[in-house]
Amino acid sequence: MRKYHIDYEDVDVINQQSNYEEMVRKSGQPLSPCVEIDGVMLADVSGEEVENYLLANDLVKPTEVPAVEPINAGCSPEMNDNPVAKPIRFF
Question: Which of 3, 39, 62, 81 is the most buried (most CB within 10 A)?
Fold first, then answer.
């Protein structure tokens, strides 16, 4: 998301049971991470899959700028300190 300057909300499904239940209801499965983009749920996806979805649906334009963080690994706690609520939600 940072590569494309997209704000997002990081939703805690570990410590908040209601968030976990919402993720399962919306995704139809219990695995995370899941990403909801404008009402579309991408279940159990990698950063690469999210990037491909964004590009394929013309939500972002291709760029040669490298990602600051690896897109094939989970986020560190420091990266999630100040999430911003937007239509993209990570479960």
Answer: 3
The token pair at 43 is 């279940």
CA distance 38 to 84: 15
The counts of H helices and E strands in the chain are: 2, 4
CA separation for the pair 33, 13 (Å, rounded): 9
| Domain limits, the chain | 9-90
Tell me which residues of the chain have a pLDDT lower than 70: 73-87, 91
Q: What is the pTM of this model?
A: 0.73
The pLDDT tens digits of the residues spanning 61-76 come to: 999 888 877 777 655 5
Strands (E), the chain: 9-10, 35-37, 40-42, 88-90
Which residues face 9 on adjacent strands?
Answer: 89
